[in-house]
Design goal:
With about 240 residues, the chain is of the alpha/beta class. The protein has one domain: Uracil-DNA glycosylase-like domain (Uracil-DNA Glycosylase, subunit E), CATH 3.40.470. The protein has eight helices and six strands. The chain has a six-stranded mixed sheet with strand order 1-3-2-4-6-5. α1 runs antiparallel to α5 and α5 crosses α6. The longest helix has 21 residues. It is globular. The model has no long low-confidence stretch (mean pLDDT about 95).
Amino acid sequence: MEMGINASARARSLKSLCKTIQACERCPRLVRWRRQVAREKVKRFSDWHYWGKPVAGFGDPRARLMIVGLAPAAHGANRTGRMFTGDRSGDWLYRALHRHGFANQETSEHRDDGLGLTDCYITAACRCAPPQNKPTRREIQACRPFLLNELELLSNVKVVIGLGRIGFDTAFDSLTVSRSAHDSRRPVFGHGVDIDLGDTLHLLGSYHPSQQNTFTGRLTEKMFNAVFNRARLLLQP
């Protein structure tokens, strides 16, 4: 009974945090850009009502796996309002999550498409779509308290996958604060790296499933799946 009460309280706290994130206007450059994209749209999505706001994390409040990406895509999550939803990066991510038992389906098209995550929570270093997919250091730092709050609430997290160097570095910096990881020296990012942070906590690195990486073959599905295989192995009882 106590576990149920705690899980319920955690879910309520996460919901409140999501509302705070969605109302954020800390970074003027990002506010202008996300609104401009939502107003001007692109032809293929001209009939969409774009989200055009910060995008909060989502997933299972009891999650042991956390995914930390870069930022919402301008015509992906900035359009749909859900992380990695409506773009090709999300196609790769949700196929992998479904294959390894963390998602109930392998597609993610819009917020009401029935997608559900099990034992997994997805978030990002930056919550607003940045111009050219490049948030500044100051913008990432402005978003960092949100990730720290998520890590505090998601106390079951044991494995974190950082997608891309920024996702990886941001995850490490946040874990050293929120979980008092034993090594304060930031490790070198690389695909497949596995950093043991102590107390059964691991940080895994993966190339981001961006079109730039997947179209060029820098990241293959075999490589991507290997990271999730490792995560699943680490989460075994």
